[in-house]
């Protein structure tokens, strides 16, 4: 075998240095200072090396997308459809920029369509990671699974009265209202959590499956769930004040070791992993937002009284994991810096004091969406300027209970107390 040329050796050395720089910068910028120092020392990379924010995540995401494209024919999500899911748009906002000046962006016009109705309140929704499916859960204990490609067919002008039926599965296996749903990040698995204290696993690749193939029996009302990005672990937020962490291979439950030190009192309204699984966040009925180490399961920061004396109804990480967007029953939406717990931005002008309302980003994180319970409107803010840029009639017979945005394209769903589900898509 020929020995590598000098040019090849130099190029490989340059590539290694570039990779090492990105790793050090990524660890440092995500407040993993000890790990960043260790890698910097081992690779002789300056700890203060400069790199664009989230460059490593961006490159990894592109690589995974390319790999996924190459293996689309073997996708575990393939239910017989020939169409692959849309490619995710990258986040377009850097919230570390302070005192953003200039005009707010206009939120693009959307078209909306009634998709289906449950027999009782539509309580929650979740898109699959590839954007090909969306599932909804109801107080009637059922779960509906929609295929997004069929929803888009419904929106075509010549198909408005056509025979397209976007519901491809309906699951019946809970005995009490469903609170939350999540899709396995790499598999054809949908999980649901309900007031009947169970977490149920459904195989969406099986056309005739109506019931769960596996059940986790928890000890409390399961209010929220989130899969680890690896798919090996599942977080459950329940009426118990401590997150329940399940190994889905053994179904063993783990609790954090520092429970006595953090004074938690309230049930968990929402729990969500960061995109790498390095952290997770909980929104609590005791009014606190808490950040947890994804490795040790210990609470590393508690933002008490995040929404005054009211409960926190939702909390989600930004894509770069550096900030958390929260919603509370004090009718405010807030953006918090993870590293310091500092309040960065507030989004005001919508009333939500009764329902477990969600505050969500659109897929590029340029806008924040939530609900005004009094006016029955969907409210949109420019994420950077915090200016309210749109208020749209929800078209529900009563305020929507839940909003969920696709991770990969400009589309979202709303779930109503009127039992209905609506799909919203940007007009091109």
TrEMBL record:
It comes from Acacia crassicarpa. GO terms for molecular function: RNA binding. This is Cleavage stimulation factor 50 kDa subunit. WD repeats lie at residues 115-156, 171-212, 261-302, 312-346. GO terms for biological process: mRNA 3'-end processing. CDD domains: WD40. GO terms for cellular component: mRNA cleavage stimulating factor complex. Signal peptide: none annotated. PROSITE patterns: WD_REPEATS_1 (PS00678), WD_REPEATS_2 (PS50082), WD_REPEATS_REGION (PS50294).
């Amino acid at each position: 075998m020929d020995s590598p040329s000098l040019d090849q050796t130099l190029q490989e050395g340059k590539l290694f240095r570039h990779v090492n720089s990105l790793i050090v910068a990524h660890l440092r910028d995500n407040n993993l200072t000890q790990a960043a120092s260790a890698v910097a020392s081992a690779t002789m990379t300056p700890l203060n090396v400069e790199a664009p924010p989230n460059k490593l995540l961006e490159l990894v995401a592109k690589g995974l997308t390319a790999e996924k494209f190459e293996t689309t024919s073997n996708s575990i999500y393939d239910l017989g459809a020939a169409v692959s899911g849309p490619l995710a748009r990258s986040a377009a906002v850097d919230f570390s920029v302070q005192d953003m000046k200039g005009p707010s962006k206009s939120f693009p016009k959307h078209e909306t369509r009634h998709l289906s109705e449950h027999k009782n309140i539509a309580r929650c929704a979740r898109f699959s990671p590839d954007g090909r499916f969306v599932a909804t859960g109801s107080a009637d204990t059922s779960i509906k699974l929609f295929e997004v490609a069929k929803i888009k067919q419904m929106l075509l002008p010549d198909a408005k009265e056509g025979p397209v039926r976007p519901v491809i599965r309906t699951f019946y296996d809970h005995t009490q209202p469903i609170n939350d749903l999540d899709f396995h990040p790499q598999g054809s698995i949908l999980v649901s959590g309900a007031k009947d204290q169970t977490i149920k696993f459904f195989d969406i690749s099986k056309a005739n499956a109506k019931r769960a193939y596996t059940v986790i029996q928890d000890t409390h009302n399961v209010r929220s769930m989130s899969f680890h990005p690896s798919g090996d672990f599942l977080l459950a937020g329940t009426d118990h004040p401590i997150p329940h962490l399940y190994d889905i291979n053994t179904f063993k439950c783990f609790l954090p070791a520092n429970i006595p030190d953090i004074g938690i009192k309230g049930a968990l309204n929402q729990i969500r992993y960061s995109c790498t699984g390095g952290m997770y966040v909980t929104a609590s009925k005791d009014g606190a937002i808490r950040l947890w180490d994804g490795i040790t399961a210990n609470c590393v920061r508690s933002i008490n009284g995040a929404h005054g004396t009211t409960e926190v109804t939702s909390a989600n990480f930004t894509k770069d994991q550096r900030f958390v967007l929260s919603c509370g029953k004090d009718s405010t939406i807030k953006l918090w810096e993870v590293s310091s717990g500092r309040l960065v931005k507030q989004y005001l002008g919508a009333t939500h004091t009764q329902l477990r309302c969600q505050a969500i980003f659109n897929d590029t994180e340029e806008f924040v969406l939530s609900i005004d319970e009094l006016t029955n409107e969907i409210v949109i803010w420019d994420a950077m300027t915090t200016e309210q840029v749109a208020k749209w009639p929800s078209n529900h017979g009563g305020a929507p209970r839940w909003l969920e945005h696709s991770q990969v394209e400009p589309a979202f769903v709303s779930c109503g107390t009127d039992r209905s589900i609506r799909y919203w898509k940007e007009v091109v």
